[in-house]
Amino acid sequence: LDRSSAASDVYKRRDLLDVYPIRRRRSAIGRTKNLFDAGRWLAKSRKGSAHMEKYRATPPAGYREVDVIDIKNDKRVRVWGDILSVLLMAATAGVGCLVVPLSELIHFDYTDMAALLSVLLRLLAAGLGGTAVVVLTCLLAAAAMRWCGAEKTNFGITKGLVCTVGCDGYFSRGAYMRYTLTAPAILFAVILLAALVLPRSWFWVAWFWQMNNISLMGMTLYMHRRLRRLPEDIWIQDGGTVVTVYAPRDIGEMNRE
Distance between CA 223 and CA 227 in Å, rounded? Predict the structure, then answer.
């Protein structure tokens, strides 16, 4: 009995010796895996924080110029922007005709002096409001640039008497997309509210403002189309009339239109 109990004690000790190292190895493997997962999470978070960067005073190291879009002097760019602007304005006018027929705008009694003065007043309001939309678009774009990190903005004007805004810094593609769409989106909501609140006879006054606002997006949509052909890690220097695109050196030259 003593020998059998001694033998059983020896086997128990061997089992313990076999089990504990396995547990130690498993715990070590688990700790290593946790450290590996933590390292991957840290790398992703750093990459995400770098990707969320919106503005830089200089382009990142290893980036080079891949495209220059001259809005003021490149005739082809201006033509494409004008075509898109006309199409957008026509589409907006078509939507307005569905709400209030255009015939109501031009149908009035020419012998009634009060009606004639009312029409002249609405035409004056439409013209002044259209000019105000252009100015507000530039001011809101400048504010959006400042929100993205720009320290100073510059204003200019093109041959088509279109106000432009730019700065000397560099924006990520996401930041560029956001701040170029901020002004039209805000004005769209404000003007739409005005069109709904004003009397029916003033609808086309407000809608003319909306047509101006939407038509100004023609060049913006053209720029977005060109920039979408490049990866997300490009950086854009928006000078207002000249837009320069920077990309990593391993990206090939972008095909010019």
Answer: 6
